[in-house]
Structure formats: structure tokens, C-alpha cells
Amino acid sequence: MSALYQRVYDDIRNRIVRGDLKIGSRLPREAQLREHYSVSSITIRRALDMLREDGFITRQPRIGTTVVSNTPTRPREGQKEPLIGLIVTNFDEAFGAHILTGAFEASFGTANLIVKLTRGEAGRETEAIQSVIRAGVQGIILMPLISEMINPVVLKLIGEHFPLTILDRHYQTIPVAAVSSDHEAGAITATEYLFDAGHRHVAIIGAPRTVTSNADRHSGWVKAHALRHISLDQSLSYHEIRSTTPGTNVSVEDDQVQLRAFIEQHPEVTAFVACEYNIALILRDTLDDMGLRIPEDKSIICFDHRPAGFDHTLSHFTHMKQEQEELGRLAVETTIQQIREGASTEKISLPLTLVEGETVAHLND
């Protein structure tokens, strides 16, 4: 299905080519066009921008929109690289930076990117979306703040079939394209790895499950117990780490106090699945403060990892590696395809790879 702005563009273009709208005539005002086509101002502006870029019309303040040609004077096909908005919550070396690298590589020679950072704030997310729309983007790649509630601006874009790709998240019941990792399968692999190493009391440590990546990792932890016929103790699920969430006011020290209390309440736990690399660091430091050694006393497996580079002192966690550059590349390619062919609802899920490190004790050895 083509985007609404494409349909408005096609209709006005055809009327100009047929002569229904003659050279020198003025188009109705934006409000009238909006009412006639039953679409938003964003859709009308995008369609008019495309007509202007193709040389059919000119737009001037206080004068309006005037037809200046009945043939395209600047052919669109192959003439201009599409402009895409890339909106992310945050990024660092462990997660996000390599997604940007993949997006930049994929867009080289094929698209231009406007990058916005929301820092986990709802107001900034709304303003970022509206800002790139005002800049004339033809598609948007969005890493949403949360997956439980959808920004009304995003819902509006989906309803208008605007080229949109959700990154590192997915909306279960909303028809929109998405590119993410298979977080559930990754958590199953991580938890089963610990089971195979002889651990039977495995806790999961994460941020609140307001995004699908965290919810899926928790689901994978649960399913791994079922697959291995190991009794599940839901009290070993701790999703109260908040200092790693963009926009939070919670300090790392506050999280460590609460995490220490959780660990002390569950001395039977011998291994942890940490849902993020930074959470693994908080867990490591908390265990160290308690006088517990890794992996001799407690084992950790996490998601993502900071590249060591030349830092040979970096702790090397056993971890689940996401194909981050591929995520960025596919997000750009999916968005470009939607710009050319119309909005899509395809959801792409990439597998994760287990990378063995130095933080898991094999109790069976």
C-alpha cells in the first residue's frame, strides 16, 4: 500500500499533467487540501514538497502554491538521495554506536541521515519526530522510548502509511516495519548455557520491562527453564535496575544498594543473566563489594559488550553478541525500500551469537 502523501502527490500531479490544473493557476490552500484529501498537514506538505522538487509547482509565502510546469523539470528517479530521520534513545560503545556505524555505511551514496538523540525523554522524542518531519524527511527510523505505550505522533505516521522502521523494538499488534534482534532466543541460549555449566539457580537482572527487548529477554529466561524441565522461581527475576535507563534520576549507587539486598535474599543463586552490559558492570561491582568473586563464587552472562581494543585490563564477560552493524544497515535499507515501494509491515529479527569469556564457572568440570 502506497503512503498517503504519495497518493496525494499522484492525484495532484495527474491533474496538472491532464491540464485540469493549468500553468499559472494556484492550488487550494493547505487547509482546503487537507480537508479534500482527509489527511494531515504533514501529508499535504510532503506531497507539495515532492511536486516542488519535481518542478511542477512553486511555493511562496503570502502568495501560495502556483503551477509552473505540466512536465517534470527535475526528474525524481535517481536524481536525489532520500532524506531519512534516525532517532535513537542513547548509545555507547557496548550498544548503539555500532548500529550507527551500520546505518552510516548503508546510507553512503544511497540516502542522507538526520540523527536525533532523545535521551529517554518523551518530550524530546516527540520534538525529534516533528523536527525531522519539518526538515522534509521521506522516512524515519525510530528507536522508541518504550513499547508498552506508543507515541501518538508515531501512531499518526503509521495511520498515514508514512515510511517508518522501528529499531531494536517491536510492536506486537501494530502494522509497522521493525528491525531487531531475537532477544527471546538469545536469552534462552544464555540461560541454557548456564544450565549446561551446572548452574540450577539462575537469576535474571534487568531494567523495567517497558521495552520489548527487556520483556523478550525475560520471556527467554522463563522458557529456558521449561525447555530444560527446571523448576522456575519467579522471585529470581529482578527488573529494578534504573540507572542505565536514559533520562533516569536514579544513581548507580542507589541501584547497587537494592541489588545487594536482592543478592543477599537469594544466596542459592550461583549465576546471573544480565540484560545489558552496563548492568553486568553494576552487578560485578556489587558482588566485589560483597567479597564475592567472579566466576569462583558467582557467574555472569550478559547481553552486548564493550570492545576491548587496546585495553587489556577490560573484564571479558561471557555475552550474547548482537549483530549491531547489521541492524543499522537493515534499518536503512528497509526504510529506503518503503520510500520507493510504500509502507511495509515486515518484521526482521536477527539471531544473537554466544561469545565465551571469563565470567562463567563450569561446575560440572
Automatic annotation (TrEMBL):
Q: Name one GO molecular function term.
A: DNA binding
| Classification via SMART domains | HTH_GNTR
Q: Which residues belong to any copy of the HTH gntR-type domain?
A: 2-70
Is Ribosomal protein there in the keyword field? Answer: no
Tell me yes or no: is Transcription among this UniProt entry's keywords. yes
UniProt KW keywords: DNA-binding, Repressor, Transcription, Transcription regulation
Pfam families (alphabetical): GntR (PF00392), Peripla_BP_3 (PF13377)
Specify the protein name: DNA-binding transcriptional regulator, LacI/PurR family
From which source organism is this entry? Schaalia radingae
